[in-house]
Amino acid sequence: MKVVVDLNRCQGYAQCAFLAPDVFAMHGEEALLYDGQPDDTWRLDVLRAEAACPVKAITVEGTGAMWATEGAGVSDGG
Amino acid sequence: MAVDGSLERLRREGRIVVVGASLAGLRAAETLREEGFTGTLTMIGDEPYEPYDRPPLSKQVLLGRVPADHTALPRRRAIEAQWRLGVAATGLDLSAKRVALADGTSVEYDRLLIATGVRSRPWPNELEAGLDGVFVLRTRDDATRLRHRLKAGPSRVLVIGAGFTGSEIASVCRERDLPVTVAERGPTPLSGALGSVIGDVAAQLHHQHGVDLRCGVMVTGLEGDGAGRLRRAHFSDGGTVDAEVAVVALGATRNTEWLAGSGLAAGPRGIACDAGCRAFDVRGIVADDVFVAGDVARSPHPLFGYQFLSLEHWGNAVAQAAVAAHNMICRGEERRPHLWTPYFWSAQFGVNIKSVGVPNMADQIIVSQGSLGEHRFTAAYGYQGRVIAAVTFDQAKWLEFHQRQIEQAAPFPPPFTTVDRRAEGMRPVPAGFPDPSVPTHGPQVTVSGHSPTDQRVTFTPA
User: Fold this and answer.
1) Between the N and C ends of chain B, which has fewer C-beta atoms within 10 Å?
2) By mean pLDDT, which of B65-79, B236-250, B298-312 is the weakest?
3) Where is the composition biased (Polar residues) (chain B) (predicted)?
4) Mutation to test the A interface, candidates B23, B58, B60, most A Cβ within 10 Å
């Protein structure tokens, strides 16, 4: 699964670091470090973190049917 | 401009080409599909990778917390694109509406989006740049190589340039317990972006964390050993430092060379475009079918005196891409302006640094909350009596308020009292930006000799 955090929006509430500590970690008081491609083991934790972020800064890519069409055609990268 | 029938046809079965498969290119592609474009979408990128995120490269990737290939950007939706990755665009024929590619093929378009971004400025001396141990940091591959070398535990790392990237690299080195020297031409780190008042705070962070910070000097030469490995660096003040690794962090160059001769207003400062992201041609007339977004774009911002801003900001790439994509496939009166207020962040030495507005337009600064000495504060920047920017160190929550202040042209110094205001924040002081007439980076080249046949070019770093 792929994750990205808009760190312009992030205000250091640290909800994600509480809910998915294997993926998100505070670095100092406010700065956030995270793994952009965490193992699917943490999927539920990451989705909880995404939902709990007070400023909605976390984007998670789904792995459901919507993505199945991607890769048709000359897709050597997507 | 398209009349309705042809616009409908464009949206249904047109060909849109996006040159640049990074953050801006990807977000533009998503917006195009989101807004109902069902034609052919071609994504061209010179790197072999799907779009990835760059900010983590100088932070968690170099720290060794995540590998560089864990930075692929999540898709917000399927984009059903034809991907041409690992092949650079080499030319643009505006009248034939065709992009030439490095593999000799070409792609025709009805609408083109240029999002080719920037690349890191290399060390100007090619021989020295080629020494084993000399790095730049911009791409995923750069990060992988540098991470590998830092992991090997070099005796000392030299960082050339103390802007945001250079400072973040120095911070990572200290966190990995590597000895690091930082050479900066300006009076303090970050002085070009934030001024020397805040730059002094950044310098304190360097010192506190054991960085050998040298300001007001330039690196005049990199010296290798017999095997072509970096051994030593020479400074303009006569000093030297022995280092196995040097990271050149001297800013970026815009990827516009491939547009030379195309007729677009493209140069070293980017591609000029209107606030609706339509590219200007060399005559200053907008090209209806060519749009620009991200780091490579230069667009006028009404909030900042219609100054053409080119911003190497993550959030700008996202916002501008969405506006460009929308405008590419809508009627003229439905076009939107790109009025994004500049926003960026950096994390170094455990401190979260954020900025809104355009600090380097300012002449004065006031610490409105907290204290510089505590490295936790909010500073507002003033320009001709109005708030033009704000910077926070570990006080990100206040930035949104300051964004509104900037957008409403609030007076400077702020007339209201704030919580946690200290004595040092009672009156504004000069922000300490470098004189814009003095170059801050890049080599100076001089020509000597008496006759044209005798002319020599001399590289003068200091």
Assistant:
1) N
2) B298-312
3) 443-462
4) B60
